[in-house]
Automatic annotation (TrEMBL):
Taxonomic lineage: Bacteria, Pseudomonadati, Pseudomonadota, Gammaproteobacteria, Orbales
Organism in which the protein naturally occurs: Candidatus Schmidhempelia bombi str. Bimp
This protein's encoding gene: bamC
InterPro entries listed in its UniProt record: NlpB/DapX
Entry superkingdom: Bacteria
Protein name: Outer membrane protein assembly factor BamC
Amino acid sequence: MLKKPTLVTISVLSLLLAACSTNQRYKREINGNDNYLNTPPLKKLSVPEGLVMPIEVDDYYINPILKDGNTGKNVDIRPPIQPLASLSGSYAYRDHNSVVLDAPSSINIWDKIPAILAGHGINIQSHNAQELRTAVTNVTRVDDDISHQASYAITYRNNGARQYMTVNLISLTANGRDIMGNKTENQRYSVDFFNMILLALKKIEMDQTNTAPQL
């Protein structure tokens, strides 16, 4: 039963490693013929003088399509990233720019986060009992060619029975360009960071379970 979580851990943790020098575009683009992009646009019907045309019916009207965004090989086909609720009895969801964990208080996650971040080379800018902020760090995914830098805020709340951790992306740049307004990239890099923490916490939970005395 331990093989499946291990495979998931390896796969997700690899997302935040520095990108290799080789081109990763093949992981994002459609493999196929995009000659459809060369289709000529529709032209307005020119009716000769004296010719009576049938009455127009809206059911058959073809609306002009305006190109907005990437097309062809520049289309990014990567699916959205979902937050992992890897801890026992936990729930995880994304709410706008925040990723939230709702978990039982059986494992104290807050005290373990600084060590998890240090293990991934992520420096802490500030830290108190309710909030931790990271310094700007390189978080480029292996399926991106462009270097990405991000900073995060992690907030924590515990009501005794349940504990709640919220991850917010504070800044996101690509090659020095601010891309916080890109909702797709915002989701990828906030959820990836959240999942990195959750998988590390899951490993701690599994280690504690394996080393607990058998009754």
